[in-house]
Amino acid sequence: MGYALSLLDKSPIDGAEEASAALARTLVLAQRAERWGFHRFWVAEHHNNARLASSSPEVLIAFLLAHTSRIRIGSGGVMLQHYSAYKVAENFNLLATLAPGRVDLGVGKAPGGLPLSTRALQGAYDPARKPTFAKQLAELGSYLGDKAADSDPEADLRAYPVPATPVKRFLLGASIESAELSATHGWGFVYAGHLNGDEALLDEVLATYRNLSSGKVPLLAIGVIAAETDAAAERLAGDLRRFKVEVKDGQSVTVGSLVQAEEYVRQAGVTDYRIEEKMPGVIRGTAARIHGELDRLHQRYGVGEFILDCPVAEAQARLASIDLLATAHLAVAA
Q1: Do both 73 and 141 map to the same domain?
Q2: Which helix (H) or strand (E) element contains residue 211?
Q3: Judging by DSSP bridges, how do beta strands 188-192 and 219-226 pair with one another?
Q4: Domain containing residue 200: CATH number
Q5: Model pTM?
Q6: Do 167 and 105 meet the contact criterion of CB atoms below 8 Å apart?
Q7: In whole angstroms, what is the distance from residue 52 CA to residue 55 CA?
Q8: Do residues 85 and 166 both lie within one domain?
Q9: How many structural domains are present in the chain?
Q10: DSSP letter string over 224-289?
Q11: Which end of the chain has the lower number of beta carbons within 10 A, N or C?
């Protein structure tokens, strides 16, 4: 086995439980991931969603770092469009100073919510002065230590404290544009296969990143659902469909249901749009079957690390699914 495994967690709330229970489960999962020998544990950012407790990854990362000792902890990812790049750099430099060599900064282009939450998050912005995502990414890199152009009047601006070991930086995406941005700005790239399972697109995006980054290999995020039998895993999977909303002259987003897609359109107040059904990349079955598919992807694309997302709603079934996969991974590694 020539690849590492990492985990992505969204702190899903199971049924009528309190959000605190979901966050406590995230901590348990991070601690188990450390014992299992997983390489990273990332937390997501979602807004105005009563079923997910992960609205502020920076805060949750600090908590997880304090209760683990070795595993890398990071964001998968910070939704950069909503924030000051300088403040994001300060937050993550501080985290990396508190936990040297253990902090990852993953950023994403998506809004992490529907238009109502986006407007609330960006209400202080003057839309005419709001930078493009590419400019924000360049600014964030410069605040984290990239050399700025000599003509830049803010070349001496840094985000303090400066950690002894810098954060590792990744851009999350599922498009050629994201691969180009990552390579151009010197960021690592994570292909969001758990949102889009189109392997032809995966071929094209990974090739783009490799060609523009002198052969660097991106990470691959993928959905996994493990059970004792293939049939049991299919029952856990439920409805895996995702829906991409494309708005004329606006940002395209992927949401978890047709209802959410229609609500996105309603909140955006648009009439010129398209909703397209997508099937995410989710491998389901026995742990052996999942590892077999990961081996295939590793051999085909040279992927050295998979970031696993387990889209199972019921809490104990989700933990059991990851436990099965981790146990099989440890056995193969041994």
Answers
A1: yes
A2: helix 199-212
A3: parallel
A4: 3.20.20.30
A5: 0.93
A6: yes
A7: 8
A8: yes
A9: 2
A10: EEE-SSHHHHHHHH----EEEEEETTS--EEESSHHHHHHHHHHHT-SSEEEEEE---EEEE-HHH
A11: C
